[in-house]
Amino acid sequence: MSQTDPFLPGQGGGELPPPPPAYPVTSDIPPDSSYHYSPAPARKTNRGVTGGLLAALAAVVTKGGYLLALLFKIPAAATLISLVISFGGYAVFYGPWFAVALLTMLFVHEMGHVVEIRRQGMHATAPIFIPFLGAAIFQRSHPTDALKQAQIGIAGPIAGTIGATAAFALYGSTHNEIFLLAAWLGFFLNLINLIPVWQLDGAWILAPVSPWLQVAGFAMIAAGVLFLHAASVLLIIVAVLGIPTLIQRFRDSNNPYYTSVPVRARWALGAAWLALVIYLGVALLQATNLFATFAR
User: Is residue 233 pLDDT above 90, yes or no?
Assistant: First the structure.
């Protein structure tokens, strides 16, 4: 889901760095970049019960993978153990074949990020699975400009789309419903991940294009809440946690981290994002219609 967590060692293991900071990091500009700046510390305020719960949830989401790897010390072992734990959790509630299909699609998506990160000369762990939250990868360093970060961001949905399409093709040749389930999950997860809000890949892909596209992302979430009742709570949480990032994106709108991206590259990113959204939307509709035939 997110390839932005820099707190685990890269491939080959090594000593773990210090844990993430306790305060929320809202800027998309990584500390590695020469365009990064450190804002003044925020004044402490009493956020009440609701604010405290949201802060705790954000800490769980952003630090869960780190704590898991800290427990197992070896990232490869953390990947394997987190895979087994996630499989057990999904299998208990939804069945073993659902677990296989979902984890396969998550793995393919995250490996897209890993391949691009390593292509850019940086290190990244194999995916760490977080039960009922998805998966994440971790890296020691980050790209120093928004274009390279966007390339990492879009690599996951591209790989995930290819994986889901392959599963759909296998269903067409074998008529095995497991492949249709995997395809549907892949189309759905990658489409949701393209919403340009908070840590979703769409936010990284469209960050160099315009901060207003993240405003549009909140409208997409509002539409999703109306139609995706089962996922409404998670979408609302993503929206709430994404508000500080949205505000910071507008504050950084004139930062060279974003403005140095060529106009042609911005158009290319926007076009690629839109093409993925259209393709995944149509493919998801087709897979859903096929599922409907089983219910008749």
Answer: no
Q: What is the pLDDT of residues 30-51, one digit of tens each?
A: 655 555 544 433 333 444 443 4
Instruction: Kindly state whether residue 28 falls inside one of the protein's structural domains.
Output: no
- Please say whether the beta carbons of 101 and 182 come within 8 A: yes
Residue 104 contacts residue 182 (beta carbons within 8 Å): yes
The position carrying tokens 């509709």 is 285
Instruction: Give CA–CA dist 185/107, Å, rounded.
Output: 12
Q: Which of 57, 103, 105 is nearest to 79 (CA)?
A: 103
In terms of pTM, does the model score above 0.85? no
29 domain residue, yes or no: no
Strand order from edge to edge, sheet including 2-5: 2-5, 134-138, 128-130
The secondary structure of 253-291 as a DSSP string is TTSHHHHTS-HHHHHHHHHHHHHHHHHHHHHHHHHHHHH
How far is it, in rounded angstroms, from Cα 137 to Cα 54?
A: 23
| 108, 142, 176 - which closes a domain | 142
More confident residue, 246 or 53: 246
Strands (E), the chain: 2-5, 128-130, 134-138
Residues 153 and 132 in one domain: no
Same domain for 150 and 295, yes or no, is yes
pLDDT tens digits, 99-131: 999 999 999 999 999 999 999 998 887 888 888
Tens-place pLDDT, residues 142-153: 888 899 999 999
